[in-house]
Amino acid sequence: NSPCLADLENESAISLNEQDVEHFQSILGDAGVVTDQHSMQPYNRDWMGKYEGSSSLALRPKTTQQVSQILAHCNQRRLAVVPQGGNTGLVGGSIPVFDEVVLSTSAMRQITSFDEVSGVLVCQAGCVLEALDQHVAEHGFTMPLDLGAKGSCQIGGNVSTNAGGLRLLRYGSLHGTVLGLEAVLADGTVVDTLQTLRKDNTGYDLKQLFIGAEGTLGVVTAVSLLCPPRPPAVHAAYLAVPDFVTVQKTFRRARQRLGEVLSAFEFLDQQALDLTLSVMPSVKNPLPDTQAPFYLVVETSGSNAAHDYEKLEGFLEEAFEEGLVTDGTIAQDSGQVASIWNLRENISVALQHKGPTYKYDLSMPVPEMYGLVEEMRARLAHLPVTVVGYGHLGDGNLHLNIAAESYNEELRKQIEPYVYEWTAARRGSISAEHGLGAMKADCIGYSKAPAAVALMMQIKALFDPHKILNPYKVLPQQALSEQLA
Ligand code: FAD
Ligand code: 2HG
Ligand code: ZN
């Protein structure tokens, strides 16, 4: 195991000592400092069981001030730190690579304010997404993002990964809905840009740098978010479609016919459906008597249930008449809507049950997207793997997942860098919404030009000159060491 080093410059081994732990105890009290080996396990292992670190210390601050004191000490001692939220990330970003100190935001769960006129929510970074949604629901609002991990992911983690999710089509990305944030830099400086304003053109928009920075530029401690009114009428349809060209035609038709009430347009292939149903008996098949290569989840959200239903029905009738869909059903009540979403949201969970899964989160022009799934299926046909494709079609985001018997280098090399090269050749992104983390830190060049990566390095050096924050993540390690040499 490498030492807990952040100082790549002199490569000296900087290990945590007893005085460090005592210092953290003096800031947080005993309850905020986790050292017991057994209790450390969940902080060292990711959701997929793919990444495992060997940290011996997790810190659980409750306030921004405590985060600031922790980081000031780590910076001065050159102790590397991994910010961790709900630990649901899918690229190994929240897990120590070696024995970095884990800074968990799980105890930062205060909701500071909610403004019923503007819909602006201000809260600490450790608030769980679903809890926030329940809170704003009491005031007639909804969170502008939703994802399968809502029960455990935290808003600080969502912001730090710039999570997309199921309703990005409707509400846009967090780059638009985050109005302000508070972050602590590596040296303990608190950067308070926790504005609640829709419009604020005073200088550079610094908060944008922290959105999607995956904990490499600072620790996000609080967030101010714009929440839309909760739509009183939500409908969902589940459709069977004969081929991928028709999937695209159906999307065009849905946008034309459903217009402003369209709130999600998701797809899954037959293999994703079969796998999910086979390992998760609790998931119901909305079309049990139908077999098709592709299925769509189409959701509408609006203010007039009868009007929206009529629109969805009209769209479906037209889609049938034009031969776009071979079968379809519209949910008749909120239970059925939830059941359709339960299927879609559980695909990742099912893959996890099935076995170790290689995940690729790609965006590219929609017409090209499914070709990659087919190519990978052919390329890996001789191996005991299941290749599935699903994702946020409305956002041009494919989730290519390859469930295997084990994580092994030989298999990985058959997939990578092929998938990245394929994506880069189409000017796609090798990380649409999950981030680069540890998994793709050395792969950023497939989607970003050298000059852009060089600028990112300079920003990193400015914000975190000693590289204590989430080292070995996001930026290529070779280039990072060269820059420091
Ligand atoms: P973590 O996993 O704890 O951390 C993620 C990254 O952010 C790490 O690099 C970490 O160091 C950093 N970080 C965390 N908190 C902070 C902070 N306060 N300050 C600075 N850095 C921080 N993602 C999507 O985009 N769309 C989806 O639809 C989606 N669905 C998912 C479904 C499931 C079942 C699962 C398991 C994951 C899914 N994800 C999805 C991936 C994941 O990115 C999100 O779950 C979520 O945004 C991560 O939040 P978290 O609190 O768990 O962060
Ligand atoms: C989803 O859309 C998530 O379900 C997870 O982003 C995707 O597991 C995946 O690959
Ligand atoms: Zn997704």
UniProtKB/TrEMBL annotation:
Transmembrane segments: none
Annotated keywords: FAD, Flavoprotein, Metal-binding, Mitochondrion, Oxidoreductase, Transit peptide, Zinc
Top-rank taxon: Eukaryota
Cofactor(s), names only, from the UniProt record: FAD
GO terms for MF: (R)-2-hydroxyglutarate dehydrogenase activity; FAD binding; metal ion binding
Compartmental location: Mitochondrion
UniProt key word Metal-binding: yes
Any single biological process term in GO: malate metabolic process
GO cellular component terms listed in the entry, alphabetical order: mitochondrion
Cell cycle in keyword set: no
Enzyme superclass (EC): oxidoreductase
Family: Belongs to the FAD-binding oxidoreductase/transferase type 4 family.
Protein name: D-2-hydroxyglutarate dehydrogenase, mitochondrial
Native source organism of the sequence: [Myrmecia] bisecta
Full-sequence range covered: 439 to 923 of 928
